[in-house]
């Protein structure tokens, strides 16, 4: 089915991305997985190509591109052969630098957005803690104002880009007595090189080419000028940006599922059993049809959410539906694809086997399926 969401400029951008990822990412995906990191050089190359921060104003290195360009980027990253790398880029582009753009002053944007757009700096959003995930208001990392500085103490975990990243947009409690509790949350940019900041890389079952870390802050002295917006604005900014973060996550799920389906169709046409390709067996054909139908239904919802979101409307309920459902859908698709590959689907040399592990996190990260359903229920008035 054809959709009218993309202009010729969007499609031109897609062609550039697809060519770049085919040449610069896909051939090295296995190597990056083994090394458990993506090289800094690829970030600089993306910066030179204009693939980072393209939605920001020209004075900060962007081109003021609309949000549909973010959709194109998410789709092409889903096909780049390195899901972990895709998570890192989207975490930088759509889930962390966005706060600097939303709340930052002109001076802050010049200082931080510009190097993030050129690829000289990698950005992360640090909200989740060992004792606070979906309940953002329960965070305990403290930022105490002392003169012209904040003294930050606390711990974050499961932070994408947290180990190799340079800038940490960090959710902190600046007022521990605030009522309600979420009104005491603020966002501060902490540079990873600051004294008292340390990080441990976490070992995951998949997505190895992106780094995920637990981060410790021990009496970190952060200039007061690193506060984004005003004290107490952090929670509201996080809730606002969740729409974009979850929309992008859902788009990645849909396009990754499409990619898996295409690879599986190719395999079933090549794999012969009982003297004919297994794609000719009715049970196989019907399973592939079910996968394709599932994907197309979610694509339609995702594109509509993207279109309305890009117009500036609040689609929290629908995006929450999209995120919850796509996370489960892509896991069904990769499960069935693994089954259709038979024993080869369990071999690490086959891409579907790696994707099986890579994708397990999508129904957890950025808001679990269960939390999404709670949000949807509340917006339904139940």
Summarize the topology:
Layout: H1 8-24, H2 29-35, H3 40-49, H4 68-77, H5 83-93, H6 97-103, H7 106-118, E1 123-126, E2 142-146, E3 149-160, E4 167-173, E5 185-191, E6 197-201, E7 212-223, E8 227-228, H8 234-270, E9 272-273, E10 276-277, H9 282-310, H10 316-340, H11 351-358, H12 369-379
Parallel strand pairs: 1-4
Antiparallel strand pairs: 2-3, 3-7, 4-5, 5-8, 6-7, 9-10
Helix pairs in contact: 1-4, 4-5, 4-8, 8-9, 8-10, 9-10, 10-11, 10-12
Task: Describe it.
Strands 1-4-5-8 form a four-stranded mixed sheet. Strands 2-3-7-6 form a four-stranded antiparallel sheet, covered by helices on one side. Strands 9-10 form a two-stranded antiparallel ribbon. The chain contains twelve helices and ten strands. Helix 4 (68-77) runs antiparallel to helix 5, helix 8 runs antiparallel to helix 9 (282-310) and helix 10 (316-340) runs antiparallel to helix 11 (351-358). By secondary structure, it is an alpha+beta fold. The protein has helices spanning 8-24, 29-35, 40-49, 68-77, 83-93, 97-103, 106-118, 234-270, 282-310, 316-340, 351-358, 369-379; strands at 123-126, 142-146, 149-160, 167-173, 185-191, 197-201, 212-223, 227-228, 272-273, 276-277. It folds into three domains: 8-122, Orthogonal Bundle (Butyryl-Coa Dehydrogenase, subunit A, domain 1); 124-231, Beta Barrel (Butyryl-CoA Dehydrogenase, subunit A, domain 2); 236-379, Up-down Bundle (Butyryl-CoA Dehydrogenase, subunit A, domain 3).
């Amino acid at each position: 089915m054809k959709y009218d969401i993309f202009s010729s400029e969007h499609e031109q951008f897609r062609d550039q991305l697809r060519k770049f990822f085919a040449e610069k990412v896909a051939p090295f995906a296995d190597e990056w997985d083994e090394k458990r990191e993506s090289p800094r050089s690829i970030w600089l190359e993306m910066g030179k190509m204009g693939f980072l921060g393209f939605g920001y104003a020209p004075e900060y290195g962007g081109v003021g591109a609309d949000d549909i360009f973010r959709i194109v980027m998410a789709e092409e990253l889903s096909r780049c052969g390195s899901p972990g790398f895709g998570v890192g880029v989207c975490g930088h582009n759509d889930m962390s630098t966005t706060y600097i753009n939303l709340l930052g002053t002109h001076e802050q944007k010049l200082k931080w957005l510009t190097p993030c757009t050129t690829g000289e700096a990698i950005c992360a959003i640090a909200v989740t803690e060992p004792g606070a995930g979906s309940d953002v208001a329960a965070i305990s990392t403290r930022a105490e104002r002392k003169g012209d500085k904040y003294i930050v103490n606390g711990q974050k975990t499961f932070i994408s880009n947290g180990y190799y990243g340079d800038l940490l947009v960090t959710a902190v409690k600046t007022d521990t007595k605030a009522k309600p509790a979420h009104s005491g949350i603020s966002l501060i940019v902490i540079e990873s090189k600051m004294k008292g900041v340390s990080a441990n890389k976490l070992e995951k079952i998949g997505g190895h080419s992106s780094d995920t870390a637990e981060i410790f802050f021990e009496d970190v002295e952060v200039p007061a000028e690193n506060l984004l917006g005003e004290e107490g604005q952090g929670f509201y900014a996080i809730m606002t940006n969740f729409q974009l973060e979850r929309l992008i996550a859902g788009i990645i799920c849909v396009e990754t599922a499409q990619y898996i389906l295409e690879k599986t169709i190719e395999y079933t046409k090549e794999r012969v059993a009982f003297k004919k390709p297994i794609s000719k067996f009715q049970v196989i054909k019907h399973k592939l049809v079910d996968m394709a139908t599932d994907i197309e239904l979610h694509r339609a919802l995702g594109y509509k959410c993207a279109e309305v979101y890009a117009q500036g409307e609040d689609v929290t309920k629908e995006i929450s539906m999209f995120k919850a459902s796509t996370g489960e859908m892509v896991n069904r698709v990769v499960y069935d694809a693994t089954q259709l590959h038979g024993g080869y689907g369990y071999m690490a040399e086959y891409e579907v086997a790696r994707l099986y592990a890579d994708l397990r996190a999508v129904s957890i990260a950025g808001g679990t399926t269960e939390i999404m359903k709670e949000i949807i229920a509340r917006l339904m008035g139940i």
